[in-house]
TrEMBL record:
<protein>
    <recommendedName>
        <fullName>DUF1887 family protein</fullName>
    </recommendedName>
</protein>
<feature type="domain" description="Card1 endonuclease">
    <location>
        <begin position="228"/>
        <end position="353"/>
    </location>
</feature>
<dbReference type="InterPro" id="IPR011856">
    <property type="entry name" value="tRNA_endonuc-like_dom_sf"/>
</dbReference>
<feature type="domain" description="Card1 CARF">
    <location>
        <begin position="4"/>
        <end position="143"/>
    </location>
</feature>
<dbReference type="InterPro" id="IPR015093">
    <property type="entry name" value="Card1_endonucl_dom"/>
</dbReference>
<dbReference type="GO" id="GO:0003676">
    <property type="term" value="F:nucleic acid binding"/>
</dbReference>
<dbReference type="Pfam" id="PF23400">
    <property type="entry name" value="CARF_Card1"/>
</dbReference>
<dbReference type="Pfam" id="PF09002">
    <property type="entry name" value="Card1_endonuc"/>
</dbReference>
<dbReference type="InterPro" id="IPR056339">
    <property type="entry name" value="CARF_Card1"/>
</dbReference>
<dbReference type="InterPro" id="IPR011335">
    <property type="entry name" value="Restrct_endonuc-II-like"/>
</dbReference>
Length: 373
């Protein structure tokens, strides 16, 4: 007798990865109910690669996703009454799910499940839709690779500075000292203009020495390009990483910083993400912005459209956020434009303080809700 996992392959591969991880100790053979289009995309291979499934244990059953008869006949050809079946009907077209459900629902050797995609839960449909909780957690790497996403070796992955340094920089920044603002803007302009510069003389920038002393960043008259990048924005990404990791008590395999990602099979989709993490098997994306003023000129719109485009590469349940320490528009017209764009693109703006704009939350309030949810 074999324990067979029956999985419907679709673009939303994460549900099958979750299912396999949850029942891996009970599964000996995998049936991938798949289609030509899914195989051309590589969805089956992404699942196998993510979980390192032995190829000899995976049987692909190619079906016509629009034919109940075809799907039923293919299942009849493989079905053996002496085996037991764990059936996941979460993926595929509605017709595929119906066909698989109808085939197995009267069979006493089959248990049918459905993953809701929310609250870490799944339903046992054989037991009157009894709710159960997923015990196995998905890592960030597993989530990404299950969708054919490659993490480039050049990615930062973990912070390069300490949380204490990021906290010190945070305190200096929110004081909004004009001398610091001017200094950091000139430093940002310098490294953007000169892509090859590796070392920067501290004395070339007014107030830079005082800022470095205030945050206790050691130097010998020069700072590296990486330090300059840190001072002009990277620090907020690292502060955000540390704060989220601390508050939500995340493991390092569920949160990362500075990831350069590439969609397999599409060579020109490389994109970078500031902070990404997995919570209750859901993906969260946070972009960070350290501007003292939010307006058309400071590229807020570019963040919105970038995140919206990138969400579509990651699946149905990814959630995107922009965290800014900048001030928001107060006039009704620009404020309404911002509100409408955030709402349309399903992106939440996170701010230091709570503001009265739809699709906007305070960063700490948002974190508290996640921690208590």
């Amino acid at each position: 007798m074999k324990n067979v996992a029956v999985l419907i392959i679709s673009d939303q591969t994460i549900q099958n990865v979750q299912f396999i991880k949850e029942f891996s100790e009970k599964i000996g053979t995998y049936w991938f109910i798949t289609t030509e289009s899914m195989e051309n995309k590589g969805c089956s291979e992404w699942i196998c690669e993510t979980l390192q499934l032995p190829k000899e244990n995976v049987q692909k059953i190619l079906v016509n996703e629009f034919s109940l008869q075809n799907i039923t006949e293919k299942l009849k050809d493989r079905y053996q009454s002496e085996n037991s079946y764990l059936v996941n009907i979460t993926g595929g077209t509605k017709l595929m799910s119906i066909a698989v459900y109808d085939f197995f629902r009267e069979k006493t050797n089959a248990t049918i499940y459905y993953l809701t995609g929310r609250k870490n839960e799944f339903l046992n449909l054989t037991q009157n839709s009894h709710k159960e909780t997923l015990q196995q957690k998905i890592t960030l790497y597993e989530y990404l690779t299950s969708y054919g996403i490659k993490v480039k070796e050049s990615s930062q992955k973990v912070p390069m500075k300490t949380f204490e340094l990021a906290k010190a920089m945070y305190q200096e920044f929110i004081q909004a000292k004009q001398a610091n603002i001017d200094c950091l803007q000139k430093l940002r302009d310098k490294i953007q203009e000169d892509k090859k510069i590796k070392e920067i003389n501290v004395t070339d920038f007014e107030n830079l020495s005082e800022l470095l002393q205030a945050i206790d960043l050691q130097h010998r008259g020069q700072i590296s390009r990486k330090d300059a990048e840190y001072l002009t924005g990277k620090w907020l990404e690292e502060w955000t990483y540390y704060r989220i990791k601390e508050k939500l008590q995340l493991n390092e395999n569920t949160i990362a910083i500075g990831l350069y990602l590439q969609k397999k099979g599409i060579e020109k989709t490389e994109n970078d993400f500031d902070v990404m993490f997995i919570l209750k098997n859901e993906l969260y994306i946070v972009e960070c912005k350290t501007s003292h003023k939010i307006n058309k000129e400071n590229k807020l719109n570019e963040f919105i459209y970038k995140l919206d485009a990138l969400q579509k590469e990651f699946g149905l349940f990814s959630q995107a956020f922009i965290y800014t320490l900048g001030s928001l528009p107060t006039d009704d017209n620009p404020k309404n434009i911002l509100k409408d764009r955030l709402k349309f693109h399903r992106i939440t703006l996170l701010t230091k303080e709570q503001v009265n704009i739809e699709n906007t939350k305070s960063f700490e309030g948002w974190l508290n809700n996640l921690a208590n949810g």
